[in-house]
């Protein structure tokens, strides 16, 4: 049935207000307007950030909202003026737009397009209206892409075509978790061959950092996690050693400095905690170590640390979605995946039907999963 130009009714997970659980509802999805694309989502990962939308700890969200930002799908229809994709194309929605026109997009050294939620709310389409309604109420978009809906509409700056041969129930991880960690090592740190790295937090993001360090040729990759169940997979993906801070009397940064002589060349924080960020910085090599912040800190928090750590030559950097300009880079990452350059599939511990989304969040919060993929 040709659905273009018509409103589509489908299932979506709605958060009606902060603190309320996800509720699976039938929603109406209006057709795309000019420079918008309507996508049938085939698969979507659950990322910790979607959990932050449930608790109200993600900035600038408006409720009711349909979260989800790690999806993969097929273009159902396009609005006027869309040239980058056409109906039937396999695509990844981009949680970080690449408008191609703003000062960031025109610079080679940043991916922070000025259309991101950091600068402009992405709760409604650019014309300030929503394409979602449910029970007669307007529902907000999340990061413009709302992948927890079987059909979703987004601006054409937030979607990119990928290789038609790629399985979408794997490729969805390029939308956030994998790209975030892998790019932190390759783009932000620019890990040098033969170097020593420490990765704090061995969830989906930290394991992707491990894969990036390995791809860059690091010779020593030390995984750090308080859940030792994460060590098996970390070693499978490239960690040469793993440490549990709870097994040591000394602070973990001291253990790392002793183990390596003078500290690590690169330390990555993929937990989202200020204590682990301070520990990661302090475990860096005197004079040259680079600490990359990947985890999202608690909303509104302030960081305090001994500034001598920086004066004596260490560097503290942040990495946002791995530093990738997403529209340019995601198709290339997908090609590398098809060439088996990294083991993305190892991150997926569960594939569940979309109707089991709440079970998926429970698994995530219990630390029993790496990445959960929901399929429609
Ligand atoms: N020290 C070391 N590891 C820790 C600590 C700690 N103090 N506290 C928690 N961890 C570990 C957890 O055991 C878990 O294995 O950090 C890991 C975090 O993994 P996930 O919860 O699966 O999170 P992930 O999806 O990998 O994201 C990590 O990046 O994108 C951000 O918002 C995300 O801030 C989060 C971070
Ligand atoms: Zn831009
Ligand atoms: Zn995410």
Unreliable sequence segments:
none
Query: Shape, please?
Result: globular
Q: How many structurally independent domains?
A: 2
Please outline the major beta sheet.
7 strands, mixed
Distance, first to last CA:
18 Å
| Annotated CATH homologous superfamily of the largest domain | Medium-chain alcohol dehydrogenases, catalytic domain
- Rounded to an integer in angstroms, the radius of gyration calculated over CA atoms is 21 Å
Would you count the extended β strands for me?
Answer: 17
Instruction: Tell me, rounded to a whole number, the average pLDDT.
Output: 96
Total helices: the number is: 11
Protein described:
This protein is α/β, with parallel strands linked by helices. The chain folds into 2 domains: 8-175 and 343-375, Quinone Oxidoreductase, Chain A, domain 1; 181-319, 3-Layer(aba) Sandwich (Rossmann fold), CATH 3.40.50.720. Helix content is 24%, strand content 23%. It has 11 helices and 17 strands. The chain has helices spanning 48-55, 103-106, 168-171, 177-189, 204-215, 231-237, 252-260, 274-282, 308-311, 326-338, 357-365, and strands at residues 8-14, 23-29, 36-46, 71-78, 90-93, 132-134, 137-139, 151-155, 159-161, 196-200, 220-224, 241-243, 266-269, 290-293, 315-318, 348-353, 371-375. Strands 3, 4, 5, 8, 9, 16 and 17 form a 7-stranded mixed sheet that branches. A 6-stranded parallel sheet has the order 12-11-10-13-14-15, sandwiched between helices. Strand 16 (348-353), helix 11 and strand 17 form a beta-alpha-beta unit. The model has no long low-confidence stretch (mean pLDDT 96). Bound molecules: adenosine-5-diphosphoribose and zinc ion (2 copies). One zinc ion binds at residues 99, 101-102, 104-105, 113-115. Residues 47, 49, 69-70, 176-177 line the site of one zinc ion.
């Amino acid at each position: 049935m040709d659905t273009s130009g018509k409103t589509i009714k489908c299932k979506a997970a709605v958060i009606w207000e902060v603190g309320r659980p996800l509720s699976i509802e039938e929603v109406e999805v209006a057709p795309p307007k000019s420079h918008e694309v309507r996508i049938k989502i085939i698969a979507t990962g659950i990322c910790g950030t979607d959990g932050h939308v449930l608790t109200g700890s993600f900035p600038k969200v408006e409720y009711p909202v349909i979260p989800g930002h790690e999806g993969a799908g097929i273009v159902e229809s396009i609005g006027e003026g869309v040239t980058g994709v056409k109906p039937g194309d396999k695509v990844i929605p981009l949680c970080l737009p690449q408008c191609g026109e703003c000062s960031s997009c025109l610079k080679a050294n940043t991916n922070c397009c000025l259309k991101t939620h950091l600068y402009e709310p992405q709760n409604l389409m650019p014309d300030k209206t929503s394409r979602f309604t449910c029970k007669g109420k307007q529902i907000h978009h999340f990061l413009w892409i709302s992948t927890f809906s079987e059909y979703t509409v987004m601006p054409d700056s937030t979607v990119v075509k990928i290789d038609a041969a790629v399985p979408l129930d794997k490729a969805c991880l390029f939308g956030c978790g994998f790209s975030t960690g892998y790019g932190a090592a390759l783009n932000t740190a620019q890990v040098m061959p033969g170097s020593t790295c420490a990765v704090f937090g061995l969830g989906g993001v930290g394991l992707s950092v491990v894969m990036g360090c390995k791809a860059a040729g690091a010779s020593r990759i030390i995984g750090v996690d308080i859940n030792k169940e994460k060590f098996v997979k970390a070693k499978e993906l490239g960690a040469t050693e793993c440490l549990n801070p709870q097994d040591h009397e000394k602070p973990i940064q001291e253990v790392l400095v002793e183990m390596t002589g003078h500290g690590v060349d690169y330390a990555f924080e993929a937990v989202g905690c200020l204590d682990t960020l301070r520990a990661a910085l302090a475990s860096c090599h005197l004079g040259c170590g680079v600490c990359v912040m990947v985890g999202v800190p608690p909303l509104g928090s302030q960081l305090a640390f001994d500034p001598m750590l920086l004066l004596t030559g260490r560097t503290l950097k942040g990495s946002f979605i791995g530093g990738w300009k997403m529209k340019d880079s995601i198709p290339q990452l997908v090609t590398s995946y098809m060439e088996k350059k990294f083991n993305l599939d190892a991150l997926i511990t569960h594939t569940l039907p979309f109707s089991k989304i709440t079970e998926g969040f429970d698994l995530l919060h219990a630390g029993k999963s790496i990445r959960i993929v929901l399929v429609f």
